[in-house]
């Protein structure tokens, strides 16, 4: 695609928007980060995050650029079930609500999801979990970096590589300055921008075309998108449900918030965020269903959201989409940088290299790791080898295989370490095989099913008798 011919906004307008938001996020990162002098303050915001900020950070982090760009792509490819299926990602947030409360109770001194796996299952399962978590984290980081480059290129004509570089650098800078406290503070503002923007975008789309004209055009040109019995779409619906659950259950992005929230906040914060998140992918995906009615030629499926909004609403629509996706992108990228930085610092650097490292030393290392993560992500985003949705769902088997080891480990003393380790390995392997042999829409489903059978069989065949008090300890050495 030639960006010069397709872009709605001129490059100067794009740079102006980038400049305004860059200055604002960096200032807020510095402002909120002034108090982050200790390790707990930097990594977990002092373990004292309240209800309003808790709801906002959970929701904003889950409204990623993937939500606002991949949801239209999936609606464009799979129809109604594509956007409805994506909205089932909210189930993961709501199911994590009781888990957040239990995590806070069982591990009052925890830092990462890796702490739980290490204490609950031992070193072998912990190291397998580290590999799975890091594969997923880099997959998500790459997809977010790609989304930023795609967005800026589609709307302004600024090259993919420059746009991707600017957004990654921005998020690295303000996350580096303020840690999780800055991440959660900016998430609150980004949530307001996303909610207001999506409501305006949906209303303008309906007002411009109308449901009747949209339905008629879809029925004539793309009737398969209205088919509620499309096999691939139905499989995707269940696959995405399990992908979302696995993504949240295992990721340190969500565990770090469970540790950071004030006691009693985790359950209502995650439950409320899940309920508020449900309509976001539906609204985002709905925009793509206007494509036949406006006669838009979409050369790349992952550009359909920005292109439709820009075509339908002109310059104002392009600016609105730019701001919404920019806020969604930053709210997730900063969270992932912070959480993955904590994970590498605590579970790899401290866990495997320097177990006696002081908190002051770890504070410095955490900042270095965030910069390194940004650089590695930038290098991996340069080729842009695949689409956003393809990359995202390639990670499905990894995260889905961890669902049952985590659930059983949190709630049953009978879960054993051998079954947990085997479930994660074979679940991931079988899910990846199905991804290549069948399709992306069944990969997480297969991974979760295989892992479930192994974990439950292990609990029945060789039950453990775990002492929950082993989780309630401060971490000193491994």
Question: Would you give an account of this structure?
Answer:
With about 475 residues, the protein is mostly helical. It has 23 helices and no strands. Helix 7 (about 90-105) runs parallel beside helix 12 (about 230-250) and helix 12 (about 230-250) crosses helix 23. The model is unreliable at about 1-5 (pLDDT under 50).
What are the SSEs and their pairings?
Blueprint (H helix, E strand, L loop, with lengths): L2 H4 L4 H23 L5 H6 L6 H12 L2 H14 L1 H8 L1 H18 L6 H9 L1 H34 L3 H49 L2 H11 L9 H20 L1 H9 L5 H12 L1 H10 L2 H4 L9 H50 L5 H23 L6 H7 L1 H5 L2 H9 L5 H21 L2 H22 L17
List keywords for this structure.
single chain; 478 residues; mainly alpha; 23 helices
Short précis:
This protein is mostly helical and 478 residues long. 79% of the residues lie in helices and 0% in strands.
In N-to-C order, the SSE pattern is HHHHHHHHHHHHHHHHHHHHHHH
β-strand amount: under 5%
Overall pLDDT metric: 83
Structural class label: mainly alpha
Overall spatial form: globular
Q: Radius of gyration over alpha carbons?
A: 22 Å
The major beta sheet can be summarized as:
none
Helix count equals 23
Terminal residue distance:
52 Å
Low-confidence stretches: 1-5
Strand element count:
0
Q: Helix amount, in percent? A: over 70%
């Amino acid at each position: 695609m030639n960006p010069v011919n397709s872009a709605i906004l001129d490059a100067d307008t794009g740079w102006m928007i980038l400049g305004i938001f860059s200055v604002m996020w960096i200032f807020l990162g510095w402002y909120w980060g002034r108090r982050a002098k200790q390790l707990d303050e930097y990594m977990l915001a002092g373990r004292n995050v309240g209800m309003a900020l808790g709801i906002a950070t959970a929701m904003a982090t889950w409204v990623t650029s993937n939500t606002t760009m991949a949801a239209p792509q999936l609606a464009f490819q799979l129809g109604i079930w594509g956007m409805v299926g994506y909205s089932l990602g909210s189930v993961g947030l709501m199911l994590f609500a009781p888990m957040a409360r239990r995590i806070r109770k069982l591990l009052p001194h925890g830092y990462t999801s890796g702490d739980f796996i290490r204490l609950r299952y031992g070193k072998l399962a912990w190291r397998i979990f580290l590999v799975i978590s890091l594969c997923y984290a880099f997959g998500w980081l790459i997809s977010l970096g790609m989304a930023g480059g795609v967005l800026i290129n589609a709307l302004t004509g600024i090259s993919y590589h420059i746009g991707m570089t600017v957004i990654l650098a921005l998020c690295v800078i303000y996350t580096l300055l303020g840690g999780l406290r800055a991440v959660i503070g900016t998430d609150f503002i980004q949530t307001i921008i996303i909610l207001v923007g999506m409501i305006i975008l949906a209303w303008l789309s309906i007002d411009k075309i109308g449901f009747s004209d949209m339905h008629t055009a879809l029925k004539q040109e793309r009737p398969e998108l209205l088919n509620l019995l499309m096999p691939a779409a139905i499989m995707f619906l269940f696959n995405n449900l399990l992908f979302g659950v696995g993504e949240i259950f295992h990721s340190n992005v969500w565990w770090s918030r469970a540790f950071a929230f004030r006691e009693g906040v985790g359950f209502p914060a995650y439950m409320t965020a899940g309920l508020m998140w449900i309509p976001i992918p539906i609204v985002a995906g709905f925009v793509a269903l206007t494509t036949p009615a406006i006669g838009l030629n979409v050369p790349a499926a992952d550009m359909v959201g920005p292109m439709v909004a820009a075509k339908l609403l002109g310059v104002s629509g392009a600016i609105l989409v730019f701001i919404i996706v920019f806020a969604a992108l930053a709210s997730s990228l900063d969270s992932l940088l912070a959480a993955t930085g904590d994970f590498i610092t605590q579970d790899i650097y401290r866990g495997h290299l320097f177990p006696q490292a002081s908190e002051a030393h770890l504070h410095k290392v955490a900042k270095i790791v965030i910069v390194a993560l940004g650089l590695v992500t930038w290098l991996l985003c340069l080729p842009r080898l695949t689409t956003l949705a393809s990359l995202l769902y390639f990670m499905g088997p990894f995260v889905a295989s961890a669902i049952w080891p985590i659930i059983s480990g949190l709630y049953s003393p009978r879960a054993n370490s051998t079954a947990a380790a085997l479930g994660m390995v074979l679940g991931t392997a079988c899910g990846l095989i199905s991804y290549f042999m069948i399709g992306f829409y069944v990969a997480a489903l297969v991974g979760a099913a295989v892992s479930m059978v192994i974990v439950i069989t292990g609990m029945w065949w060789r039950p453990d008798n775990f002492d929950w008090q082993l989780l309630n300890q401060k971490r000193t050495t491994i």
